[in-house]
Design goal:
The structure is a single chain. By secondary structure, the chain is mostly helical. It has one domain (44-147, 173-340). It has 15 helices and 2 strands. The protein has helices at 13-16, 21-37, 44-69, 77-94, 99-121, 126-144, 150-153, 174-198, 200-210, 212-217, 222-248, 258-271, 278-296, 301-315, 319-340, and strands at 159-160, 250-251. Strands 1-2 form a two-stranded antiparallel sheet. Helix 5 runs antiparallel to helix 11 and helix 12 (258-271) packs parallel to helix 15. The chain is globular and about 70 Å long.
């Protein structure tokens, strides 16, 4: 009987040169240590900017789950950001519940709204879905200005939000406590997203993105998973909006223009559309680059911002995380080659 020649399995290069997980834990611990010290090292204005970075990171994480991992393009997540913000503002203005309880309520409302919006959107793909979600972003500010909702939304005047009080008698001012409050929610939501995407649900979502017909043939309920992904993505963005309402202490329809959705997408692309950690880089970009562009040219800051964006897309077509991964693989291969000689 003829023997079959079996080709020995070869590990991918990325697996063969992977650093031990200990270094990743050390990196996470260092980042958390820096975040813990940051409120005492910067001014109140800068601290509010870093709080906004955390909020944007949560919103863009929701967008990455939908667009990067599920393959559904959305240009309307600014609408869910506004729904989450108004939920917190209305609850604090009309009821006596504590501010921290409004965050999960806002997330739950946006989860339901996103899931329901995802049901009719199942018939849309690609640019058609993007156009439908963009219509949602354009319509939301006008709906918030509707006279019939003035009792709840405050109309064009908006709603004033009381700042959260510092609990347990902690020796912190309001700005520092808001930063830590946003940091706690950021850590929790990122851990949940990481576990979700690494599990069975995440594999099903990615399978639908890569080959929906094959995923359906393997028994994946594509309609359910697409709607559920839209709902989870909206929940993340709604929680970000609720935290943003606490940070700004004021919400109005003009606070959530259609450009806000474009801003989220820009940050996601800059950081890496199919990554989790890349949203922090994207959030830093959309928060601080406009200020830097304004310092470079007060006459045309948007032009400077556009030039930065074009340059980054040319230099980093896969986003900042893609570039860092490329550099990391090169360094690890060099280290392995050095040890072999």
């Amino acid at each position: 009987m003829a023997t079959l020649n079996k080709t020995p399995s070869v590990k991918p290069a990325a697996q063969a040169v992977r650093w031990p997980p200990m270094w990743r834990y050390v990196g996470f611990a260092a980042i958390l240590a820096i975040a813990g010290i940051l409120p005492f090292a910067v001014s109140g204005y800068r601290l509010s900017q870093f709080s906004q970075v955390l909020i944007y990171a949560i919103a863009m994480l929701g967008l990455n789950i939908l667009t990067g991992f599920s393959g559904q393009i959305s240009l309307g997540h600014g609408a869910f950001y506004g729904i989450g913000a108004y939920t917190t503002a209305i609850l604090l203005d009309k009821t006596g519940i504590p501010y921290w309880a409004t965050i999960p309520i806002a997330g739950a409302i946006c989860l339901g709204a996103g899931f329901l919006f995802g049901l009719p959107a199942l018939r849309l793909e690609g640019l058609h879905l993007a156009l439908a979600t963009f219509a949602l972003a354009v319509a939301t500010p006008q709906i918030l200005k509707f006279k019939g909702f003035d009792h709840w939304t405050g109309g064009v005047q908006g709603v004033q939000v009381d700042g959260p009080s510092v609990p347990f008698g902690l020796p912190l001012n309001t700005d520092r406590w808001i930063f830590y409050f946003c940091l706690i929610w950021t850590i929790a939501l990122f851990v949940i997203a990481g576990n979700l995407l690494r599990g069975r649900t995440g594999r099903a979502i990615i399978a639908i993105r890569d080959h929906p017909l094959a995923a359906a043939a393997m028994g994946v309920d594509t309609a359910l998973y697409k709607s559920l992904t839209f709902g989870i993505s909206s929940m993340y963005t709604g929680i970000a909006g609720a935290l943003g309402a606490l940070l700004s202490a004021y919400v109005s329809p003009d606070s959530f223009p259609a450009f806000l959705s474009i801003k989220f997408l820009v940050g996601s692309v800059v950081g890496g559309i199919a990554s989790i950690s890349g949203v922090f880089i994207g959030a830093l970009f959309i928060e601080f680059t406009p200020n830097f562009a304004d310092q470079v040219s007060k006459a045309a800051p948007d032009a400077i911002f556009g030039m930065f964006l074009i340059a980054l897309m040319y230099l980093m077509p896969k986003g900042a995380i893609g570039l860092l991964d490329f550099i990391g693989v090169r360094l690890r291969r060099a280290a392995v080659a050095k040890r072999q000689y």
